[in-house]
Amino acid sequence: MYLFNGNNLCSNNHHDLAMKKILTLAIIFLSFAVPFAQSTNMNLKHFPMLMPQVQPNTKDSYLCTAFRMPRYRTEYIVEFIPNATMETAHHIIIYGCKVPGYHVRDSPRAVWECGEMSGVVGPDSPYLRAPVCTGTYSIIYAWAMDAPSLVLPDKVGFKVGKGTDIAFLVLQVHYAKVDRFLKGDRDQSGIILSITPDSANRVNKRAGVLLLGTQGSIPAKSIEHMETSCKISQPILMHPFAFRTHTHKLGKLVTGWLIEDGKWKLLGKRDPQKPQMFYPINNESLIIKENDVLAARCTMDNYLSHPVSVGPTGDDEMCNFYIMFWVDGDDELDEKYCFSSGPPTYYWKNDPLIGQVPDDIDREASNYIQ
């Protein structure tokens, strides 16, 4: 499911619970907000994915509800329309699952607690606890910080339903504050999807997301580089068209790179303290292919008197660089996550995939105005 680059070695380890939790942390903050133009004459239907009048009663509650996709036809998601505000929902994620973590046959809007990272479930919570998905899952979409609607590029869509591993979409909403709900309010936050059937022949490029991130810790009163890299190990041609960066409050700059035959090409560069949306890729003519190396760096300034590690709360940190891409036809990236152990055990300079980092790249990867 993921590619973990720790201590300079890449390995696949589907049973690494700690890494699964770090991945869950990272995708929590993924929010798309790049407007691209789809064909206006596309045969679209709107599919509302909304919470069914929920009433969370514990701070940092993560609630999930599942929606079945068509069994006997293939569809493509081409637009995401938020029905939420940041005053109510800290973030929203849509996952693709074969089997949701909890599902009641005759209760399609069953709701459950699904915050794997928080580890906090109130004793008085009316909701059962279960994972988001049972088995494998994929990221379809995420929203945060009042991001606007996302329209995918022309001919591009996320494939769901028949012929895919996505039999269900699971809506997860993070309720960081619950004061209004303790006073009796209920919520219907969610996302409205624009979907086109495969029979419309309007989509011939499959969308996907690749996430680069790190674990690690930042020493007190220091500037640290949190870095990661991985090698594309399958025959595939990926066309990146958008990127997103994410850290918490200590992040100063996040950059992502494509290394092709030793040549570094910038994918994207962003101050993570500015709106954390998806932005157009630096050069949309770039193609990521087999044996290429992808790398990312977060420059962190820990002005605090104590070390800060990667973790789930605002007092912890994160380092993520997201790449949104399309592929021709029906190809799909096998390994969608690329993580390193981070500092103090992993740095680019010690990674044989990277080799010597050119001085100009090293400067640009951390060039921010203090």
UniProtKB/TrEMBL annotation:
It is an enzyme of class 1 (oxidoreductase). Residues 205-350 form the Copper type II ascorbate-dependent monooxygenase C-terminal domain. It is found in: Secreted. Signal peptide: none annotated. InterPro entries: Cu2_ascorb_mOase-like_C, Cu2_ascorb_mOase_CS-2, Cu2_ascorb_mOase_N, Cu2_ascorb_mOase_N_sf, Cu2_monoox_C, PHM/PNGase_F_dom_sf. Its cofactor is Cu(2+). Keywords: Copper, Disulfide bond, Glycoprotein, Metal-binding, Monooxygenase, Oxidoreductase, Secreted, Signal. PANTHER family: PEPTIDYL-GLYCINE ALPHA-AMIDATING MONOOXYGENASE (PTHR10680:SF14). This is peptidylglycine monooxygenase. The gene is 107370013.
